[in-house]
Fold this protein.
Amino acid sequence: MTLPEQQEIQNPAPGGHRVLFLIDRLLGTGGAEGVLHKMCRFLPMRGFHCSVATFLAGEGVEQQFSCPVRVLPIPRLYHPRHALAFARLLRAEQVAIVHTFFPASDLWGGLVARLSGCPILVSS
């Protein structure tokens, strides 16, 4: 028997906060990637709409998530064009929370999230 808080909910409650997780690399489901996978699985039960963005994804990893996963193949991380594209993505999806993992995401993603007007930034 599965407890209600352990069940996976595919469709979050309407009007929930949108959270985008930005991680440098998504190569498996261990460590930080495992924590991210669990958050994306269980946060929808609390009314959050989750999505993930990464600079590098391992083969098949994107299919392991129950939310959208975008690969941002950015060869030169600090080019203004890439920052503008990421800021547009945050605004278009009306992201309220950006949670970053690892150094490049913390520095680059945190800065772009703040400059794009995202109200909440969580950096690990």
